[in-house]
């Protein structure tokens, strides 16, 4: 909804009082909603807001973690792995700020596991759709470098061929052959 967009806009600009205002509006909207994605997004935005809202809030990091865990709960209910990676990345940063490196490592590992799973699923899906695309995505940078080199070489040879052909044609038109 539009309040979420406005909250995010003000948050990104560092205008926290306005962002807080739009978060309050979202809370009212959520009382009428049953959409778990709305709840997940609200808690993610609220967690981000709390992590930056240090003014008049000595427990801002704890509040942030609470909302990240709520966002995680709703994201799991709707099975949104991409959303979970974002949550895990951000919650690990909050734990780092708290100097809680054990929990930071736990959430970084969760993020990596999901990213690896998504990458594997993506490759399998590409393989099913079009094996040629999947094979290209698994090529190493060294293979791509050789392809670029050979393609460049072919273009260079073709350019030289046409250059000399044009140059010879120009000489012939400047000095026509004398025929008897």
In short:
By secondary structure, this protein is an all-alpha fold. It contains 8 helices and no strands.
Q: What would you say this structure looks like, in words?
A:
The protein is mainly alpha-helical and about 180 residues long. Helices cover about 80% and strands about 0% of the residues. It has 8 helices and no strands. The chain has helices spanning about 1-10, 15-30, 35-50, 60-75, 80-95, 100-130, 130-135, 140-175. Helix 1 runs antiparallel to helix 2, helix 4 runs antiparallel to helix 5 and helix 5 packs antiparallel against helix 6 (about 100-130). The model has no long low-confidence stretch (mean pLDDT about 80).
Silhouette: elongated
Order of helices and strands: HHHHHHHH
Radius of gyration, whole Å: 29 Å
The structure class reads mainly alpha
Number of helices: 8
What proportion strand?
A: under 5%
Q: Unreliable runs, pLDDT <50, ≥5 residues?
A: none
**Arithmetic mean pLDDT:** 80
Name a few traits of the molecule:
180 residues; single chain; 82% helix; mainly alpha; 0% strand
SSE topology sketch:
Layout: H1 2-12, H2 16-30, H3 36-52, H4 60-77, H5 81-97, H6 101-129, H7 131-137, H8 141-174
Helix pairs in contact: 1-2, 1-3, 2-3, 3-4, 4-5, 5-6, 6-7
